[in-house]
Amino acid sequence: MHKHQLVDASQHKYLCQISLGPLNVVRTWSIYYVNGYKFHTEDKSQGMKTFNSGICVIGTGEGGIVDDYYGILKDVIELVYPQEPTKKCVLFSCDWFDPTINHGMRVHREFGIVDIRCTRRYSKYDPFIFAETATQVFYVPYPTKTRDKVDWWVVMKTKPRARVDNSYTLELAYQEEVMCNVSATSNDAPLENIRDDYGHLEEVGVDVLMTNEKVDIANAEEDSQEDEEEDIEEDDEYEDEEQEDDNVEFSIEDDNDD
Question: Which of 23, 129, 141, 202 lies 20 to 30 Å (CA to CA) from residue 72?
Answer without folding.
Answer: 23
